[in-house]
Design goal:
The protein is mostly helical. The chain has a domain of about 170 residues: Butyryl-CoA Dehydrogenase, subunit A, domain 3, CATH 1.20.140.40. It has 9 helices and no strands. Helix 4 packs antiparallel against helix 6. The protein starts with a helix and ends in a 6-residue tail after the last helix. About 25% of the residues are buried. It binds 2-acetamido-2-deoxy-beta-D-glucopyranose. Keywords: Disulfide bond, Glycoprotein, Membrane, Signal, Transmembrane, Transmembrane helix. Pfam families: PMEI (PF04043). It comes from Artemisia annua.
Length: about 250
Amino acid sequence: MEEESHILVKPKVNSSDDDDDIEESTSTSTSQQPQSPTRRRTTAVIITLTILFVIIGAILAAGAYDTRANSSQPDDTRLSSIKATRSIKAVCAVTHDPPTCVTDLTTLDSTNLYDPELIFNLTLSRALTELVRISTLPKTLISKSTDLRAGSALRDCVSLFDDAVSQLSQAIEAMKSGEDGRILNEEKVGDLKTWISSAMSDQETCTDGLEEMGSSDLEEVKMKVKVSSEFMSDCLAVLDNLEKILNLFGKKLH
Ligand SMILES: *[C@@H]1O[C@H](CO)[C@@H](O)[C@H](O)[C@H]1NC(C)=O
């Protein structure tokens, strides 16, 4: 029992020694506390400030880079859009309705084209789109018509419109092939004029036929054909004035 109690006591002493140690170490650290946290706080503030400066610096640098990148990009875009607007205006000036032409072509010009030849291509696209849009009209009218004589004139119109579409498509096709950016030469301009004129006269032949047969659909067809014909005659006007327009931009027909 004695032994046991001794043993029991001994650890107690030991543990109390430990406690003393701890207390001592705590007290030593307590005695240092007034200095250490201040230093630690100062260090923390310095580190925080440094990090802040680095972050702010990075943000400012990125901002400056961004501003430069952003300001140069719109400048380029603005410049090419100004150039594109100039060519569109020059091309549209020879058409029957310049303001509408400018609006239409600006809508079609998604990539800021400023080569008058490419702008001409837009007038051609506009003409083909309109022609294709109205080209189903004769078929629609045939399905409604009870007038036999007018019906035969309408059937002529179906094939005339088919031909007109294929003429203009040929013109569009010719605008696709260009060696090293050159699309038009005098010969091609001549071909384009021929195809466009043929498409125009197809439409005229159609309305003439309807008139001859006294078709009640004449007015509707004439009205629709009018816009399409105007777009095509715009294309011809641009081709007729192409040399002059190109000269404005210091260019020549190849
Ligand atoms: C002309 O326009 C047509 C679309 O109508 C396009 O496929 C063709 O590539 C254009 N030509 C040029 C040279 O951009």
